[in-house]
C-alpha cells in the first residue's frame, strides 16, 4: 500500500501492509491524544472476555464450514493478540515481536523430530507423548512443581476439568476403566438428589459441579471431547427447536401459542425426520 493511500493517522507510522499495518492501526487506536476513547480505556482484564469470544467465533465458523467467514473471524482473533501486545508495550512489559519470538521458539523446541536430531519416524501418539514430556520439562523450568500447576484458570469449565484429570492420570490417580466412572456418576446423581431435597442451594450447586466433573471424566475415558459433544448437542437442540418453530409458523402460530405436549410431538417428528436422512 502506498503511503499516500493510508489514513492520515497512519501515514507517518507505516510504509507496509500486513502485520506492520495492523500494529500501526492498533497503536493509533490507543494513542492517548488522538486515539479512540473506547480503545484507550481498555485493559487486559476488559479485553480478555473478547479474546475468548473471538476464539469461540473462529471455532463456530469452522464447525459450520463457513469458509468465507473464517478469514474475518481469524482476523478478529489476531486483533486480540495485537491489542494485548500493544497494551503490554505501553506498560513496558513486552511487545508483539516478543510474542512472535516466544511461540516460534516454543514450536522449534517442541518439535525436535522436525527441527532437531530426533527421528521423524514415529506415530502421532508417540509425538503427543513426547510433546507432553517436553511441556512437563518446561513447567519444571518455570518452578511449577505441582502436577496441576499451569492448567489455565480461564479455560471453559469442562475443558479445564479434562486437563486437570489428564494431569492426575499421568501419575496414576485415575479409575482403571469407564465402568468405575459410571458407578461414580450414579453416586453423584444420588448425592445431587439429596442436596436438592435438603433445600441448601449452596450444597446443591456443589453437588451439581461434582456431577459435571465426573461427566468430564467419563468423556475422557470414552475418548470424547466434552466441549465438542456439548456443542453438537446444542446444535441439535437448535436445529430441532427451529423445526418446531417452522411447523407452527406454517399454521400462522408461534411457540408461545402452543403448549408442551404439542411442541414435544413436533420435536419427535423432527427427530424422526433426521433419522430418515
How is this structure best described in words?
With 277 residues, the protein is an all-alpha fold. Among the domains are: 3-109, Orthogonal Bundle (Helix Hairpins), CATH 1.10.287.1080; 117-145; 228-276, no CATH class. It is 69% helix and 0% strand. It has helices at 19-29, 37-41, 44-63, 70-90, 96-109, 112-115, 124-141, 157-170, 178-198, 201-221, 226-249, 260-276. Helix 3 (44-63) runs antiparallel to helix 4 (70-90), helix 9 runs antiparallel to helix 10 (201-221) and helix 11 packs across helix 12 (260-276). It starts with 18 loop residues before the first helix and ends with a helix.
How would the global form be characterised?
globular
CATH-defined superfamily of one domain: MazG-like
Strand content: under 5%
Supply Rg: 25 Å
Uncertain regions spanning at least 5 consecutive residues = none
Outline the biggest β-sheet: none
CATH fold category name of one domain: Helix Hairpins
Number of strands: 0
Number of helices: 12
Average of the residue pLDDT scores:
89
Structural class: mainly alpha
Specify the helix fraction band: 55-70%
Instruction: Give the end-to-end Cα distance, rounded to a whole number of Å.
Output: 51 Å
What CATH architecture of one domain do you see? Orthogonal Bundle
Q: What is the highest CATH level, the class of one domain?
A: Mainly Alpha
Order of helices and strands: HHHHHHHHHHHH
Organism: Paracoccus shanxieyensis
Family: Belongs to the nucleoside triphosphate pyrophosphohydrolase family.
EC number: 3.6.1.8
GO biological process, one term: UTP catabolic process
Amino acid at each position: 500500500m502506498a503511503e499516500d493511500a493510508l489514513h492520515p493517522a497512519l501515514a507517518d507510522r507505516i510504509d507496509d501492509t500486513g502485520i506492520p499495518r495492523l500494529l500501526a492501526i492498533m497503536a493509533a487506536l490507543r494513542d492517548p491524544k488522538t486515539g479512540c476513547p473506547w480503545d484507550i480505556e481498555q485493559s487486559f482484564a476488559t479485553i480478555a472476555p473478547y479474546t475468548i469470544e473471538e476464539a469461540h467465533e473462529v471455532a463456530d465458523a469452522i464447525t459450520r464450514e463457513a469458509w468465507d467467514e473464517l478469514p474475518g473471524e481469524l482476523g478478529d482473533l489476531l486483533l486480540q493478540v495485537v491489542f494485548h501486545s500493544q497494551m503490554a508495550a505501553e506498560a513496558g512489559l513486552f511487545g508483539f515481536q516478543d510474542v512472535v519470538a516466544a511461540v516460534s521458539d516454543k514450536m522449534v523446541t517442541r518439535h525436535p523430530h522436525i527441527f532437531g536430531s530426533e527421528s521423524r519416524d514415529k506415530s502421532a501418539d508417540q509425538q503427543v507423548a513426547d510433546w507432553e514430556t517436553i511441556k512437563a520439562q518446561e513447567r519444571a523450568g518455570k518452578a511449577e512443581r505441582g502436577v496441576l500447576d499451569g492448567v489455565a484458570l480461564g479455560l471453559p469449565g469442562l475443558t479445564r476439568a479434562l486437563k486437570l484429570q489428564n494431569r492426575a492420570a499421568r501419575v496414576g490417580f485415575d479409575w482403571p476403566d469407564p465402568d468405575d466412572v459410571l458407578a461414580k456418576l450414579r453416586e453423584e446423581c444420588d448425592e445431587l438428589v439429596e442436596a436438592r431435597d435438603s433445600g441448601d442451594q449452596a450444597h446443591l450447586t456443589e453437588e451439581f459441579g461434582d456431577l459435571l466433573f465426573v461427566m468430564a471424566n467419563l468423556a475422557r475415558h470414552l475418548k470424547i471431547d466434552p466441549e465438542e459433544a456439548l456443542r453438537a448437542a446444542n446444535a441439535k437442540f437448535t436445529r430441532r427447536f427451529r423445526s418446531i418453530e417452522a411447523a407452527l409458523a406454517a399454521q400462522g402460530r408461534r411457540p408461545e401459542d402452543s403448549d408442551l405436549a404439542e411442541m414435544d410431538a413436533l420435536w419427535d417428528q423432527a427427530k424422526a425426520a433426521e433419522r430418515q436422512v
